[in-house]
């Protein structure tokens, strides 16, 4: 490790209102004592009410950003969030191939407010060529359904989806988030030889903008510190639960979570 300070990189879109995307990731890294870096895939115009516009960065400029980072001080772990086009995925794949650091893929597809954040035609490439490079993949239920082609309504369906992720898509591990199901908020980590289920009460709030970004960023931060995936998953779950419980209630729509809330180690 060149630097004693753990470093994590996010490759994602921006949300100027600070709830999701790159800003949520950097706030999460900072809270976990990790130095944050970012390469921007898309600039969005969005707030707690929805996504008003999207500008995709040309793939060549994403390449330039990643080149600047990796030619100087390489991160110890990285994550991706919104990647709108297949061209950008080609670029990211090249860096993931060349640098063997833990890579967390949050397969962002649709915002909480319902806006499509990925080209429909890029989903096959994401599934077949990017996901197999990840240390873990963190789909929510609709994303897991889209990527596996099955309907998920129960724990048995989640297990079936995990099997497809691991045996057919070829991912090393998958964390399926149950935030979109009814009842308690239950998340599932599946690795080759074991699985772990973490449950928390479902907090009654409309303020869940950026929960997926935050959860996967905390996991990435912990992996940058060389913690195990299981430990990282446990910390991610505790962090997001407190962050949702103590939401700052910002904006007129679905507000962001609280990055000052989690006080644990
Ligand atoms: N109301 C809630 N109460 C407690 N935990 C929740 C709640 N909603 C989501 N979570 C937790 O937040 C994390 C993110 O889950 P979710 O399924 O919402 O992801 P997502 O849909 O990708 O998030 P995003 O809103 O950023 O798109 C998971 O750990 C999930 O269990
Ligand atoms: C740039 C960017 N990345 C990710 C999301 C998903 O987050 P959410 O589902 O909470 O809107 C988003 N809205 N914007």
Automatic annotation (TrEMBL):
Transmembrane residue ranges: none
Top EC class for this record: transferase
GO cellular component entries: cytosol
The EC number(s) this enzyme carries: 2.7.1.49, 2.7.4.7
Pathway assigned to this chain's UniProt record: Cofactor biosynthesis; thiamine diphosphate biosynthesis; 4-amino-2-methyl-5-diphosphomethylpyrimidine from 5-amino-1-(5-phospho-D-ribosyl)imidazole: step 2/3; Cofactor biosynthesis; thiamine diphosphate biosynthesis; 4-amino-2-methyl-5-diphosphomethylpyrimidine from 5-amino-1-(5-phospho-D-ribosyl)imidazole: step 3/3
GO molecular function terms noted in the UniProt entry: ATP binding; hydroxymethylpyrimidine kinase activity; phosphomethylpyrimidine kinase activity
InterPro entries in alphabetical order: HMP/HMP-P_kinase_dom, PM/HMP-P_kinase-1, Ribokinase-like
Top-rank taxon: Bacteria
A GO BP annotation: thiamine biosynthetic process
Database matches in SUPFAM superfamilies: Ribokinase-like
Every Pyridoxamine kinase/Phosphomethylpyrimidine kinase domain range: 15-258
Catalytic activity: 4-amino-5-hydroxymethyl-2-methylpyrimidine + ATP = 4-amino-2-methyl-5-(phosphooxymethyl)pyrimidine + ADP + H(+); 4-amino-2-methyl-5-(phosphooxymethyl)pyrimidine + ATP = 4-amino-2-methyl-5-(diphosphooxymethyl)pyrimidine + ADP
Pfam families xref list: Phos_pyr_kin
Keywords of the record: ATP-binding, Kinase, Nucleotide-binding, Thiamine biosynthesis, Transferase
Entry similarity comment: Belongs to the ThiD family.
PANTHER family, sorted: HYDROXYMETHYLPYRIMIDINE_PHOSPHOMETHYLPYRIMIDINE KINASE THI20-RELATED (PTHR20858:SF17), PHOSPHOMETHYLPYRIMIDINE KINASE (PTHR20858)
Name under which the protein is recorded: Hydroxymethylpyrimidine/phosphomethylpyrimidine kinase
